[in-house]
Write a structure and sequence with these properties.
With 447 residues, the chain is of the alpha/beta class. The chain has 14 helices and 13 strands.
């Protein structure tokens, strides 16, 4: 009975959050269908050979001073000043409640785990959780339905409206640690945000990462990645659209890469676009993270993705909304459980897992979780499952991927960095590198 009451309270809390959003300014009424938007290249007024300003854009979006950049004039705008005061309070609370205990837990529980590449299906723009949980990865890959968006031209947008839209989009995340897809569709589609890129940059700046380069991409049917310029609004363009951000952590000069792809992960899309799976295979073994995933991996419509994750991952961290416990072969996987399992929120009550409840009730291999995460976002109600594949079941994905895919992005898409090499008419050449049917939107996906 206690668990049922707790579950009901969490569901009511989420509904309260959604209803409170209606009292925030500039509410968007409609929830238009997602477009696989592909955006322009450099920020307005910049050229392909001048990319030092992306970090200034990130800091400005995050409400942080830009140290004498061209954006400095906008820092006097009352709308930005008000935004800074409000977002600073929200961030400080979020960092104290969520990030600090999460970082401490990671240093104790995940410090020896992980691969060079971490992937997050159904992520939305949630770079922050993936980066916090796996801070030593070299490449991060987010995959979701939301469009990429653009770097804004602040000389043409209404700053109070823009930052009100951005703050509204972040408000629920900074309270619950997840985005609701249906809400985000309304919050970004008809506003100047136009996609997830401003939120990705916000998170990077707030984590004191230095943004070095931003490039807009389209993955063609043959698997090549093409750098793209601006498209007309509403024109999705050919290929799987995405963005590539190169950044460095605050305490390291080493470059890292974040890819975000706007891609539907249901079976039909997965089968029609085999180049996407080949691209992922080219990175070698993966660490996969999922949370607040609407239990989509329980569905037969995402069975291809689920099998890919199980085949290609060396490590997997998820809450109970990820892959069902019954799908982990104990011969192949070693599982470690954290937190508590009180079942799904009411919206997903049919996804209750009796076998998972039995594990948590016995207490074997169950360890404390000092922060909240997922739909049961309050500390003391959340769970995480860490799965590590036994070494005898590792596989060499890189050799297979090099035989079927043209390889990982070997050249810099930035001619300034690559000395202009490997650029042919705006298309970056690809060379192999060895390194380590309902729409999903209808499932009320929550990230």
């Amino acid at each position: 009975m206690t668990n049922g009451k707790t579950c009901l309270l969490c569901s009511l809390a989420i509904l309260l959050i959604l209803s409170l959003e209606s009292f925030l300014p500039h509410e968007v009424a409609s929830e238009p269908a997602f477009q696989m938007g592909l955006s322009s290249g450099p920020p307005p007024g910049k050229t392909d050979d001048d990319n030092s300003g992306e970090n200034d854009y990130a800091r400005f979006l995050a409400g942080m001073p830009t140290s004498g950049s061209a954006l400095g004039a906008f820092e006097k705008d009352p709308g930005w000043i008000s935004y800074v005061a409000s977002i600073n309070r929200s961030w400080e609370n979020f960092e104290a409640r969520q990030l600090r205990p999460m970082r401490q837990w990671v240093s104790q529980e995940l410090c020896a785990a992980g691969t060079a590449t971490a992937i997050y299906p159904f992520s939305g723009p949630d770079f922050l959780n993936l980066y916090t949980l796996f801070p030593h990865a070299k490449t991060y890959i987010l995959v979701a339905l939301e469009p990429v968006g653009v770097l804004p031209d602040f000389s043409t947008v209404d700053l109070p409206d823009y930052f009100a839209d951005l703050q509204r989009c972040l408000w629920q995340y900074l309270y619950t640690d997840f985005f609701v897809t249906s809400r985000m569709a309304a919050q970004i589609a008809d506003t100047e945000l136009r996609g997830v890129l401003p939120i990705l940059l916000f998170f990077m700046a707030r984590e004191h990462a230095r943004v070095l380069d931003v490039r807009y991409l389209a993955m063609k049917p043959d698997g090549t990645l093409e750098e793209r310029q601006a498209l007309n609004e509403g024109d999705p363009g050919p290929g799987i659209q995405g963005v590539r951000l190169v950044f460095a952590a605050a305490d390291s000069p080493e470059e890292r890469t974040l890819y975000y792809f706007c891609f539907n992960l249901q079976n039909g899309s997965w089968e029609r676009n085999p180049q996407f799976a080949s691209f992922l295979k080219s990175f070698g073994p993966l660490t996969t993270f999922t949370k607040s995933a609407s239990y989509l991996l329980f569905s037969r419509y995402t069975s291809d993705l689920k099998q890919f994750i199980l085949d290609r991952s060396h490590y997997l961290l998820q809450d109970d909304s990820g892959i069902p416990l019954k799908d982990f072969d104990p011969v192949i996987w070693k599982l470690k459980f954290y937190g508590t399992y009180i079942g799904p929120i009411n919206l997903f009550s049919s996804r209750y897992q009796p076998d998972l409840a039995k594990v948590y009730n016995t207490g074997k291999d169950v360890y404390p979780l000092p922060f909240g995460i997922g739909y049961q976002f309050r500390p003391g109600t959340s769970n995480l499952i860490f799965a590590s594949k036994k070494q005898e079941y590792y596989r060499d994905d890189r050799r297979e991927s090099n035989e079927t895919f043209s390889g990982h992005l070997a050249c810099r898409l930035d001619g300034r960095r690559s000395g202009g090499k490997n650029r042919q008419g705006g298309i970056c050449t690809i060379t192999p590198i060895e390194h380590g049917e309902p729409a999903l939107a209808a499932a009320v996906a929550t990230q």
